[in-house]
Amino acid sequence: MKEQRARQAASVDLVGYLVEKACASGGDAADAVRIESTSLGVSWRLGKPEDVARSEDHDIGLRVIIGHKQAFVSSNDPRREALDELVERAVAMARSAPEDRFCGLADPALLAREWPDLDLADDDWPSTEALVETARETEEAMLAVDGVSNSEGASASYGEGLIALATSTGFRGAYGSTSHSIGASAIAGSGTAMETDYDYASVRHRADLGSPTAIGRSAGERAVRRLNPRKVKSGPRPVVFDPRVSGSMLGHFAGAISGSAIARGTSFLRDRMGEQVFADGITVRDDPRRPRGLRSKPFDGEGVAAEALDLIVDGRLTTWLLDSTSGRQLDLVSNGRAARGTASPPGPSATNLYMAAGSRPPAELIAEIDDGFYVTSLIGFGVNGITGDYSRGAAGFWIEKGEIAFPVSELTIAGNLKDMFRHMEPADDLEFRYGTNAPTLRIDGMTIAGT
Fold first, then answer.
1. Pick from 61, 139, 199, 287: most CB atoms within 10 A?
2. Per the similarity annotation, which family is this (predicted)?
3. Across-strand partners of 52?
């Protein structure tokens, strides 16, 4: 941890130097970001190591603003002479850039002055040998499942990252994070009757990772359950989304309430602020300060204080996802949702997005369905963000008389997100496993295309 803090301090000094140099060289305003990442991963297949890979990235980005013109330059060279050249190029480019009346840094009044420790990093760096052993154990458990005939491999990895940001309006900050993950993909059956499925886990702290054996066994069992899928007839049916895929609904929602999309008029929710968008009782929250969250951050990409937002309250839409630019375009202010890289302007994005749990267990939602579809896998990207039209390939299990009956595949589910949101019921099984999380979801009246 001491070494991490020293690296953060050094990175803050570096981006601070860039900002000061840019303003001294003719820029009216500037901000700079440094993003570092290191990863180590191994893969194991059919009883032997298949791959060991390590990568390191160190990127620096500088934005310079002159009047209503801005320019971006990036580099991976931290030497002082290279940084000075970076500043020179950025200032020259900003002078020649086209006018953008909405560009600019965040309002200084919104900047984070202090922030809590979100516990995003640990100091438990696993050795290559430990990762190999984890991957081996994961695949071994997967292959031990009766019915598993082959392996697409198991993996284990570790990553460490650092983000430092400085602005000419006085912000200086940095934070580090770590990630640990394991995964496995199994093949069941043989010949033309083979099926595949997977499972994985990703966490900030290694102590939260759980059992490799459990992940491997789950991957194998999921693949076996998909054997011998049947065909079903087309028609309108209730559809239940497993938690592995239910979060995709929130992904579509987040895209629709992005301030950039609203400002462009390219969202099916562009005129729905304050209106009923989801069913009564539904709450959707974005929480960037959840301890150990996979997308947690103490401040956003512009240095704005990042606080939890209830985007949907009792089914009603309460706000957009805003950075400073989209806020200016909509005559609003940033709500701390700016995300950025090193070579492009910040843009609005969700963090730890989730739908609050409902009151009924999944079994109760399923028990009421005589004929329906339980989705465990989605294929393709057939979603129109302007109209809300939704059509995606899907696989999973058929529901008969209130029970999971048999596997199905090669289906298409279709509807319109405006109607789907209004007819959605969440179960009570919310777990925080991913960056975007939702419980089991039931949506009545969707169209299923089968035979």
1. 139
2. Belongs to the peptidase U62 family.
3. 42
116-to-122, 165, 190, 291, 392 alpha-carbon distances in Å: 16, 17, 53, 9, 41
Q: How many CB atoms neighbour CB 101 within 10 A?
A: 9
Residue from 300, 349, 307 nearest 106 by CA: 300
**Span 88-112, pLDDT tens digits:** 999 999 999 999 999 999 999 999 9
What is the pTM for the complete model shown? Answer: 0.95
Instruction: Work out the pLDDT band at 381, boundaries 50, 70, 90.
Output: confident
SS3 160: strand
Residue ranges covered by each domain of the chain: 2-222, 229-451
- DSSP string for residues in 156-222: EEEEEEEEEEEETTS-EEEEEEEEEEEEEEEEES-GGG-EEEEEEEEESSGGGS--HHHHHHHHHHH
**pLDDT tens-place string over residues 240-266:** 999 999 999 999 999 999 999 999 999
Residue 342 contacts by C-beta under 8 Å, 6 or more apart in sequence?
33, 34, 35, 59, 60, 61, 74
Q: What's the CATH architecture for 2-222?
A: 2-Layer Sandwich (3.30)
Confidence of residue 382 (pLDDT cuts 50, 70, 90): confident
The three-class DSSP label of residue 129 is: helix
DSSP per-residue string spanning 370-387: SEEEEEEEEES--B-TTT
* Dihedral of the alpha carbons of 282, 357, 427, 202, in degrees to the nearest 10: 130
Whole-angstrom distance, CA of residue 62 vs CA of residue 372: 53
Joined tokens for residue 100: 């953008």
Please give the structure tokens belonging to residue 418: 């405006």
C-alpha to C-alpha distances, 380 to 235, 254, 393, nearest whole angstrom: 21, 18, 6
Which residues, in sequence order, are CB contacts of 175 under 8 Å at separation 6+?
Answer: 8, 118, 120, 162, 163, 297, 298, 299
- Residue 340 near residue 301 (C-beta atoms within 8 A): yes
Q: Which residues contact 61 (CB under 8 A, 6 or more apart)?
A: 32, 33, 34, 35, 72, 73, 74, 340, 341, 342, 343
